[in-house]
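[Q] Does anyone have a clean structure-token version of this?
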Amino acid sequence: MKKELVSVLILNWNTKQFLIDCLGCLEKQSYPSLEIVIVDNGSTDGSLPILCKLKKRKKIILIENKTNLGFAEGNNQAYRASHGEYVLTLNADTTFDKSMISGLVNFMKNHPHAGVMQPKLVFMSDHKKLDNVGAFQTWSGIPYYFGLYKNADNPIYNQDLLVYTVKGACLFTRRKVIEKIGLFDSAMFAYFEETDFCHRAWLAGWQCWYTPKVLVNHFVGSTLGHRDIFDYTFYSFRNRLKSYLKNFAASTLIVLLPLHLSALMLMALINFARGRFQNTQAIFKAISFNLLNFPEILKERRQVQAFRRVDDNKLRQIWFKNPRLDYYYYLMTDISKFQD
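[A] Here you go.
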């Protein structure tokens, strides 16, 4: 029986030191039906010539951007050039064994309502340390990153879990999900775009899952060092607020939005008191952006709500998991010390 085609989308932005290992792992996959689409987002580290050489020797679709169009649009470009029934957005800073793709496909086949999933992500430098196992929502609007930097052998992280959102470093989905709701919001550029996608998938009637049955090693933060702290903070907070305004039902927003804005004000105050003035400025700019662009966000909201199939009252039972208050303290200090 012919296997369904899996499209692997890889965004390269100055990840030269990881490319060969990642592509080598893909070349060794036991799953027989793969296509690889790579988008180079204006890299300046000499990785593009390597990709051009690989393209001649391997079956790789290569798209070259002159400038960095962001994680969201870069993956959207790759998706538009792909053809697979399944789509995997994969960071270049990952390695995995030969059964990885097969494991992802088998999980989807065994879970017909699963629209999005992620495998168990562990640190490349320490396989006993989790990246995370996805995230849940909280009434503060600050996601609860379950398993973030915890012991990978803990039994609570070694069972299949329904989650609010998975991580874009290794996000596996069905093409028909994307055809229905779109992939990433290009305007978000980077950060929180995968959560926005997962939220929309839930609204359209699909589920988001984490499974420990598939393991991927992740360097974690390979591109973060290239970003300015102001941009990182701004995009993170801007995109989160925009996503909530687009996706949550009014019955959820009426409670969550005031609490989230209060949390943002508190975080801005804490950053100001600590002398982190860039962070404070970025938070206020993120809020201002959503206020100034509110009419456009409302248009996007109408598009999202048009394909909604499930009420928030049902979804909140799965999405929301409110941690103890000390979670927020450890999130700002050392999250590995927080006990889930």
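[Q] Thanks! Anything notable?
[A] The first strand starts at residue 6 and ends at 12.
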